[in-house]
Design a protein that fits this description.
Elements (H helix, E strand, L loop, with lengths): L19 H16 L4 H8 L3 H8 L7 H11 L26 E7 L2 E12 L3 E11 L14 E8 L2 E5 L2 E5 L4 E5 L4 E6 L3 E11 L1
Length: about 210
């Protein structure tokens, strides 16, 4: 935990009259702090600034330096650009995939073959996210692949049934079942029990 400092940046720096950017940044910091159930004093101690500075920043009364914003973002465990999300200066991507669309692909792994449709993919400085609609036809001659990685995986079965492997566990999944797991252990479909299996796979990991 960083000690509270009394550096020049931590002194009163009046915001220009009618500064919408400072007000927007302050509101965002307050929202992020509330989400983490932190008091202003908690945030100040973690960031190494005074509680008075946190209060002035959140209320939009000052124009904080980049070093102050960097310390606050680090204490909130978010990239500094996240503090500007409501200022109109942040960059964000949105993907709208209509029914039946998406990037269709076929995965070949040894003798195993399955189809998937990429419904969404985002890569930021701090995060990578992808959403796949996977279709596997039952084939007694081959076994679906298993994976290891980082981050978290969410699976939702749309059609069919299967045995899912996670580490040393084998879980039976059916239509409407879901599964959420850490990707550090080996995971994936062990065996398809129905003629066809369709499921949604969502994975997110820090970069």
């Amino acid at each position: 935990m960083a000690a509270t400092t009394d550096c020049p940046e931590d002194r009163d720096l009046p915001a220009p009259a009618g500064s919408n950017i400072n007000a927007a940044v302050g509101r965002t910091i307050r929202e992020l702090r509330d989400l983490k159930r932190m008091t202003a004093r908690d945030l100040a101690q973690r960031a190494g600034v005074s509680s008075a500075m946190v209060s002035r920043v959140e209320s939009g009364q000052v124009s904080p330096s980049l070093s102050i914003l960097e310390m606050l973002a680090s204490a909130l465990e978010v990239p500094m650009v996240s503090l500007f999300r409501d200022t109109g200066s942040a960059v964000a991507d949105v993907t709208h995939v209509r029914t039946g669309q998406g990037l269709k692909s076929t995965r070949l792994m040894g003798q195993h073959v399955h189809d998937f449709v990429m419904l969404g993919f985002h890569r930021r400085l701090d995060l990578q996210f992808e959403c796949l609609l996977v279709t596997i036809e039952r084939n007694e001659q081959t076994s679906p692949p298993t994976y290891t990685g980082h981050g978290c995986v969410f699976v939702y079965v749309l059609e069919g049934a299967a045995i899912y492997r996670y580490g040393r566990q084998e879980l039976q999944l059916g239509e409407g079942d879901s599964l959420c797991l850490d990707a550090e252990l080996r995971y994936g479909i062990q065996k398809v029990l129905s003629p066809r299996l369709r499921f949604l796979s969502v994975q997110a990991e820090r970069r």
